[in-house]
Amino acid sequence: MKNNTKKIDKYYALKHEYSGRTVVTIFGIMLILITLTMVFFLISKGSATFFQNHISLKEFLFSTEWMPGKDEAQGGPAVGALIFIIGSILISGFALLISTPFSVALAIFMTQISPAFGKKLLQPVIEIFVGIPSVVYGWIGLSVLVPFVRHQFGGLGFSLLAGSLVLSVMIFPTITSVAADALSIIPNDYKEASYALGATRWHTIRRIIFPTALPGILTGVVLGLARAFGEALAVQMVIGNTIRIPGTILDSTVNLTSIITMDMGNTAMGTTWNNALWSMALLLLIISFIFIFIIHRIGRKGSASS
Amino acid sequence: MRINPKTADKVTTVLFYLVAAGFIILLVFFVGYILYEGRVRLNLHFITSSPVFMQAGGGIAPQLFNSVYLVFLSILITVPIGLSAGIYLAEYATQNRITKAIRFCIEALASLPSIVIGLFGLLVFVSMTGWGYTLMSGALAVSILNLPVITRISEDSLRGVPKSYKEASLALGATHWQTITKVLVPVALPGLITGIVMTAGRAFGEAAALLYTAGMSSPKLDFTNWNPFSFTSPLNPFRPAETLAVYIWKVNSEGLIPDARQVADGSAAILIISVFLFNIGSRFIGRVLSSRFSGKSK
């Protein structure tokens, strides 16, 4: 009899606990598998440029010669990606420069100056900005910003400036939300202590609140940079896609994501040209991992100092 | 010269207000511009007719349908996996290496550029499966894009359930798993659904991950043919399926139709309206569900 209840218990536990637990554990582990598969495939495909086509890593990263269609007779295809790398860095760097002051100011406004206004009105506004698809940003950039730049500053309008401006709007919700989270968890005591000492609100923000939340704000900035670096279509639509290093911010240029977007469809798999595009995708993957690494470092430093 | 601190405080406060107002004005301008420019095409004909090859006057019916269908499929794929992984992380995971690895992978997946996910899709769901550009390949690529988001939402909403609920259920003799399925998930449901609808809204406008997975063309769809195995049937997931967001991009970069500008304007307006619908819809559903579950309404 006793043995029998034990059996039932075991069956009961299997049915109502262990089976469910096993299933969710498997799905959890599946996330690791998906990531690993992705990394594996991108590495194997992205490294073909170096192992099959014998392009040196140095040439790929530091040469500006992009002639992927050149004949073997003329020295073979050249797939130096430096122009695209510089393009990506310049576009996202400028976007960050434009976006950060406004995004952080908005986060400070939402958390320190008018939380009620921030929650009721600005939070939904940010959510709608996040929801706007990147092609729509690109489209507004193409139909408003590009003609505007053309009329105001001359040139074609398709430019580094247009790309950075479009990106700066696209990354502001990321920076603002992460910064606002960091700002909102600052204990009230800090503020009250500062006010009690006679400091004004601006003084308190500048000297107490901003430095305390700095690690969180920096995390937001890096996340914004990561988003800017990986954005493809919105940028591609407005930068003109001329393969050259821009001399001024009004010049058209090109970046990693744009060249991948444009050329992936019309190159045959297995050619040096196509392989070079995969290497760029691998580069984007590595860079996004580096960004995560930086964020972790910032997080650790932040928690160590407080 | 030293500026009076009180003046500085006032000046900066005004500046902060200006920045906040600036963002609101920017949004109003964006949405107003898109809707105003697209107003000509915001009619039934535009959303119910097919594009006409190399001619003006075409609509966006197949693209709109593809977007909806693709998002629907991808949510169908993502939710079971993401919710399960979320349950694992919120309820079962202990502080060990596997948990750490899962968290790192979620972070890594979330920060990957969508074009990279699209390329992975091209390699695996298009080439290796031998399907070619299909709606299913696109749905799978978007699923990978959504997976970290849904997992996080699931974990967060499960963690948001008050501890007393869990303790009460366990005290009544329920197993941990029974507590999860009968108490925690139902209580977390409003937050979960809000999150899922919002994620769906984001997937609706995705384009970079779809260019080389779902493709940049759509076969002639016969909207009277609902046999999912027929090639012209809209329901067949194994056919190329250009979505609305991809169409906006393609119309611009190819410019094969003379009214490309109006078509893009109209499509952008439809996308923006969809974003609003998803946004308002998710809030509405969340509110209705939470008031029903907490017993505030009759």
Notable characteristics:
heterodimer; A: 306 residues; mainly alpha; MetI-like fold; 2 domains; two-stranded antiparallel sheet; 12 helices; 77% helix; flat; B: 298 residues; 10 helices
What does this structure look like?
The complex is a heterodimer of chains A (306) and B (298). Chain A has two domains: 2-46; 78-305, MetI-like (MetI-like fold). Chain A is mainly alpha-helical. Helix content of chain A is 77%, strand content 1%. Chain A has helices at 2-46, 48-51, 57-62, 82-113, 115-131, 134-153, 160-184, 188-196, 201-230, 233-238, 256-263, 272-305, and strands at 66-67, 78-79. With 298 residues, chain B is mostly helical. Chain B contains ten helices and no strands. In chain B, helix 8 packs antiparallel against helix 10 (260-293) and helix 9 (244-254) packs antiparallel against helix 10 (260-293). The mean pLDDT of chain B is 89. At the A-B interface, helix 1, helix 4, helix 5, helix 6 and helix 9 of A face helix 1, helix 3, helix 4, helix 5 and helix 6 of B.
